[in-house]
């Protein structure tokens, strides 16, 4: 059987750097190298957003005891397991986002990924998924604790503590949304890379 | 420019019903119609699991007040917002899973999807994602409430209530894992369908 594409094609070299869709009629799709580059920019934007919001959520939660009352009995974040979980989750996501921002900038400027390409797209997608679930879980847990604290005396006596932890939780949820969008984009990136690989495999 | 594949190919008719991978050397992948069928069986298994676990989680939580003590002051699930959330989330997922089980069985027996194929795969994938997040959020919220109840008198006086709600929460988490796996599988199904569509578009 004749292997189509590699024998009769007038240009047997890979032509994936041509971005015009009519140059690759075989695939009848707009997915191309330039598409991938545009995606990398969007992913960078959402990673920056995830970094900012999760870092500020962790910092806000950490500084809840920097309010007016420095009394011994005033509540601190480390008195509550759920708030410790929120700080841990947001710090982990901030660190991960920082690494991913570096990797994104590196890829945009040098044109190649930090890890081998196949590992990189799956690494990104897998971690985005896991960290989105982690942030949502931490946010839900913290929100339920904050609701419980409103029912007892804590929030009547130390209102600043409750308001500040509410702000930290909201920032954490915005961070979750950013990671969620990054995860959808990097899932689509896995797909684009797979199509580019298939194009290469057909031409060489 | 010569359009590869459609002119020189010895058999211009679509051959997607042949399942042997060597019959389609152009794609160099094992993705095929039979692969899709095997996936449908696996998705059905995880949907059944999601249905069983989320339904039993909701029922367990609903019957927490059927224990020994029928006193007026004994805690009920409807006294706690987080437990109401757990019941609502698990009921919604049980209903959705029931619908999806029906759709899966229909697809396996009749060979076609309930909605148009393109809508169906995206409908499944989108809802799986959303409901996985919903169940995780409900589970985290309920777990934090259960932890708080251990700190106050409720669990010392009404231990059966706490044990039963813990069981309901665990069942909910197993349901979450099932929906998570279904979501990954239906994400891969979107990919398989896209490849099959591309195969068809090349041959016809």
From TrEMBL, chains A, B:
Residues 1-25 are annotated as: Disordered. It is a multi-pass membrane protein. Keywords: Cell membrane, Membrane, Transmembrane, Transmembrane helix. Signal peptide: none annotated. It is found in: Cell membrane. The chain crosses the membrane at residues 41-65, 77-99, 167-188. This is CASP-like protein.
